[in-house]
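Q: what sequence does this backbone want?
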């Protein structure tokens, strides 16, 4: 078995254990080149402009927000999900199930349930993003005062956007959340 000694021996050139380091500045090397300020001609002329102060819009990029800036109010506490799972009205569709509970709030809140039957985490997160975006588009038509739980079924993974939006619209309308006539 290989053993490492506890004390490491210092290897130096001098007998007193001190390293001999020159205090003089090293002479410059031949051919060394240090650029002067604003000397690089390879840059575009715009790069030489002084830095601007304050916030500016990005050039040719988005501002970080989606095209539809309406924010959804999402349920996040386990108690809110439990209340929706225990009571309320359920409306079903082959792609998803909607559970609805009336509240006295001035907004409609949503919860999403994507079980492991849908697939791995990447698939479940993609389904959540697709449902949220479809809900964002419909947000101006929501009736206030509802808590809604959307439970995704495995068929939603393969569904295209139009089928997803149609299923959501039908379930939300039949639950009373979307304005308009209710379907049976």
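A:
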């Amino acid at each position: 078995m290989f053993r490492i000694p506890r004390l490491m021996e210092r290897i130096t050139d001098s007998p007193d254990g001190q390293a001999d380091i020159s205090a003089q500045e090293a002479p410059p090397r031949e051919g060394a080149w240090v650029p002067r300020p604003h000397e690089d001609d390879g840059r575009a002329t715009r790069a030489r402009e002084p830095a601007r102060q304050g916030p500016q819009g990005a050039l040719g990029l988005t501002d970080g927000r989606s095209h539809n800036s309406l924010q959804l109010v999402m349920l996040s506490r386990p108690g809110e999900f439990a209340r929706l799972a225990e009571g309320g009205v359920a409306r079903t569709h082959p792609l998803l199930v909607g559970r609805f509970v009336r509240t006295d709030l001035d907004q409609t809140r949503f919860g999403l349930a994507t079980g492991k039957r849908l697939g791995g985490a990447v698939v479940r997160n993609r389904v959540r993003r697709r449902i949220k975006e479809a809900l964002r588009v419909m947000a101006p038509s929501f009736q206030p005062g509802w808590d809604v739980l959307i439970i995704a079924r495995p068929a939603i993974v393969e569904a295209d956007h139009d089928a997803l939006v149609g299923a959501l619209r039908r379930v939300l309308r039949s639950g009373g959340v979307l304005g308009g006539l209710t379907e049976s």
